[in-house]
Amino acid sequence: MWAFIGTTVFCFIVWLALSFNGHMWANDELLAGAVLSVAAGVVARTLFVRDFKMAHPKRWLFFLAYLFPFFYEMAKANLDVAYRVVTGRIRPGIVKISPGLKSDIALTMLANSITLTPGTLSVDLDEDNNLYVHWINVDEGALEEMPRPCRPVCASFSQWARRVAE
Amino acid sequence: MMEWVLYACLAIGLLFNFLAVVGLLRFPDVYTRLHAGTKCATFGSIFLSLAVILYGLWRFYDGNEAMAALSVHAFIALVALLLTNPTGAHAIARAAHRSGVVPLQAVVDDLEEHNQQSMPTSQEEKNVE
Amino acid sequence: MNWTDPFLISLAVLLLCMFLALIRVLLGPTAPDRVVALDTINTMVVAAMLVFGAAYREIIYIDVAIVYAVLSFITTLYVAKYLEGGSL
After folding, report:
1. ipTM summary value
2. Domain range spanning residue B17?
3. Domain boundaries, given as residue ranges, for chain A
4. In Å, what is the CA distance from A33 to each residue of A17, A25, B43?
5. Relative to the CA of B110, which of A1, A121, B54, B125 has its CA 20 to 30 Å away?
């Protein structure tokens, strides 16, 4: 029941944002949105809400706080890639890291963050939740340990992902 | 003043989109091209949409009410891009590795080792054939 | 209509970038190379639609961009699935 309500409310908010045109919404617009949101809620409630771990304001605040270091790392990453595009100085390789996360949301978040930041791109995920990451400039020191250290690959993202979604 | 912020955002966005294309043409294999194509193009698109969002807010502030909708819709498009782009890149990288594209100039490939450990029999069968 | 509008100039540069990326689509030695180039072009098309909407002050173009972003993502996923050799 709560899954249905959450999905419907989310759909209705997205509808409001999409049908916004600078004035207040007309009544028939709101009615159509409500009917469609209820329909979408009935269909998609089991897909959208798996459990209620994320329904906690503390996690949303953590997510908002996470955006700042993330954007900083992303800007740094892009300058790095720009440098490599211009000079062509690369040393690629696929390394394995064990972030030690379990929940799907946390792993998705970590993999997406890794893809958007310093010279790394997540390629695959195995059964034991180890990530395989393509690294454009493999660090010599990181090759000595197995599994590779998390720190040079994903900065502090694994801790953030744990705080937000684990 | 506001115009110059817009011009700066557009210039940064175009610069990174251009770098994405240069990287796409210059790098040696699929994975490195994905680096350029995903990261730089996403970053460039963030700045281009930021310019559009700021432009909409600016026009709204000047009294054109409909332009607030421009900002809201551009923001939704930006969120859609940010969610879908890395996932798409991830899917392509995985598909490329599974369809047997080897990373060129690679100094290490843990995933290949993992695959060989987990299914040595199928590998041997291939060799026999 | 004013050709010195910065948004229209950005649009021209983006179109140029798309044509350069098309070279990779045509050259690309393997299928994944072409998919990567197409994915980059898709991102740029979304950005170009946003800029186009701002240049002509039309909101409808930006709605098209949202739908295009989601549909191009689904296309990329399907093509990747096909390359992997799994069933669709």
Report:
1. 0.84
2. 2-128
3. 2-48, 57-165
4. 11, 10, 33
5. B125
* Structure tokens that stand for A137 in this block: 């400039």
**Where are the domains positioned within chain C?**
6-84
A12-16, A137-141, B120-124, C2-6: least confidently modelled range? B120-124
Residue A1 vs residue B12, higher pLDDT: B12
Q: Which residue has the tokens 């959208």?
A: A48
Tell me, yes or no, if B14 comes closer than 8 A to chain C by beta carbon: yes
Number of domains in chain B: 1
Find the closest chain A residue to B39 by CA distance. Answer: A116
Contact B92 C39 (CB under 8 A): yes
**Chain centroid, CA A85 distance in Å:** 26
Sheet with strand A120-125: strands edge to edge: A93-97, A131-135, A120-125
**Cα separation of A164 and A153, whole Å?**
19
Percent of chain C at pLDDT above 70?
93
Containing A95, the helix (H) or strand (E) segment is strand A93-97
How many angstroms separate the CA atoms of A139 and A124, rounded? Answer: 20
Nearest to A115 among B28, B90, B112 (CB): B90
**H-type helices in chain C, by residue range?**
6-27, 31-56, 60-84
Determine the residue type at B28.
P
User: What is the overall mean pLDDT for chain C?
Assistant: 86
Taking CA–CA distances from C66, the nearest residue in chain B reads B77
